[in-house]
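During the no-cost extension, the postdoctoral fellow (Dr. R.K.) reprocessed legacy sequence entries with the updated structure-token encoder. One reprocessed record is reproduced below for audit purposes.
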Amino acid sequence: MKLWRRLAVVVLVFLMIFAFSACAKNEPAPQEEPETPETPEEPETPEEPAANVFELALITDVGTIDDKSFNQGAWEGVEAYAKENNITYKYYQPAEQSDTAYLDSIALAVKAGAKVIVCPGFLFEVPIHTAQTMYPDVKFVILDGAPHAGDYNIEIADNTYSIFYAEEEAGFLAGYSIVKEGYTKLGFMGGMAVPAVVRFGYGFVQGAEYAAHEIGLTDPVQVKYTYVGNFNATPENQAKASSWYNEGTEVIFACGGAVGNSVMKAAEAAGTKVIGVDVDQSAESETVITSSMKNLSKSVYDALAAYYAGNFPGGTSVSLDATVEGVQLPMENSRFENFTQADYDAIYAKIVAKEIEIMNDSDVVEDAGKPAEEVTAADIPVSKVEVEVIN
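Re-encoded structure tokens follow.
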């Protein structure tokens, strides 16, 4: 009996130990004392918007941003305003020349936060007609064009500003100055026969005519005149310019974007001269005697300034002429020997005062009394200039 009691005690002890051990396993593990929290660090400065947001945008046309011509002139206006006012900016180059490609680039600019989009050239007329409705909160500046749906029925929305230039005045200044300088065997080599290029050429012929009368020339000024059908630097364009120089042409007005590069190469080989276009192209070649300029940079700069001042001129179209310094010759970089600053100031003042009637493309068509597609530079009413149209 005593032995049984002892066994019972031992079993009870073991049961108590097992129960205690099980309870211990189910109790939560002791927690460490929490550490004193560190002082929170200052938040990092947010990334500048320039990394992924661009308020101002430019979409190039068939040229490049450094074409030394239309695209570059417009871009310089965007860049100047953006840098002066610490505003982010970017340009977009479409994959190809098509309405779809232009709209794709506009979409990229809008996605990146563009508030104002500058589009240089008449090729944007149809795309902008679409985009101004798709993106009513974005402002568009179109140069040398006005939006339409492909039917030439102009529709300028309140968020679009259309800018044209009096190219006939710029061309007039070039033709006048070059004849006053002493050259009488001239050439006009345009890119494509689009309105802006046509106006440059018609003004060039009229400027030569005015100077010839002023000087009292007895022999006529000779002008070879053509459109090469593109805006590119090509061996064909260079060969054509070379042939003109070899035939006695002294100066060619190269009015077609990169076509000018071909003409400059030909002039360098022939030891002759070139007139640049759109922007000051004097740095491109020693052969550039002057440039027939639109004040692209200023017009774009002014449009952006108007937007940020709260008076964007949307819904309107303007033609910038000499009265607002919309056209000019870069006299400070021109390589004239006889044509002076005083000569330039005098003729410019006459243009501003409208003392000289300079016909544009529409005026020449009306005067000729023929269908527009049949009118050429040979229809310009001149008496001291002989125009040879070369197709």
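The first strand starts at residue 56 and ends at 59. The first helix runs from residue 2 to 26. The remaining legacy entries will be reprocessed before the final report is submitted.
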